[in-house]
Specification:
about 350 residues, six-stranded parallel beta sheet, two-stranded antiparallel sheet, 11 helices, 10 strands, disordered C terminus
Length: about 350
Amino acid sequence: MRKTITFLIGNGLGKSLDANYFDFKQGMEKGWDRTKSKKIKSLIKDSLGKAKPRKEKDLEIIQDCFLKLQSIEYQIKGLPNALKKALELHINKDKERYFNYLFNVSSHFYHYQPTDAEPRVLAKFNTFMNNFCSYIRKKWIAGDTVHVATLNYDGLLYKNFIKNEGILNGLDGCLVDGITDAGFKKEYLQPKYGKNFGWFLHLHGSPLFYSEYNSIKKNTYKQGTSSSEAVLYKPGRKHIILCHPKQKYESIQYSNILSEYLEHFKVAINHTDYLVILGYGGEDTYINEIIKSSLKKAGTIFVIERSAEESSEERSIFWKARLCPNGTKFKLIQKETILDFNFSCTTPDVTGL
């Protein structure tokens, strides 16, 4: 019997390579340093009432200002054209400045080079990714479907999936992410030729995405180019979610591509036999609610996390409260690093996970 396996991967994948580099506070600091425009910095400072953003709470304030601008933009639609256009011009300028800063934070994570990791850690990561790609390919050959949803902003999965041709290969591109050279369309999320490739859903967006002429496009990563190829800011890079967990669901609704990804994630969860969670901290309440309310009745949840100070019993209680309705099968797997997770078992029932 064919199975559906869904992977949900968080920022812990990056932290397993370099915990300091992928620390959110460092990302904010580096994003501020990347921001050269005085007007952008002045706007951010005015929003916060202090020198510069330093902690996640500051992102909540910044995002709240952005959401209020979005709300005002919708409210002025009935005004006379001349007045509406004048207000929209100011609003759009300020929104673009917010987007620029968020892009600079997220691009810090995207541009990380695994080769900068310690040799022992890099070797583990390479083994992890090779096993992951091999696992997906074997599942596809067996007739199963594998979806991958990510909550991070880095290119670790993206680049490795493209290098391993045939992994989540889509309609007209390297991944079933709904984007071709012509731009994003939800119809493109359907695998080509009736094949059972799964979806690649970047739920919190990416610095690669940008809006242009009413289309959503992305910078492409091509083999043979430098893996450190810079993705630079351009207007329209607004499909990035960097804010407090309670703001994420509302923020996603302002992006056509991210809201569509979220709907497809709900569908994937609804059909999932095995949900494998790697490197996710469990703090995004909207993600937890989708899993808790939508997971296939006979589905099983596997959480793979780094060994914590708390006992496995305490951690299991933590996860079950967030993710599991009564009766859901659940297994917690703790490792010294999530890179030690073993994909070698590819039996149809995935009992070896």
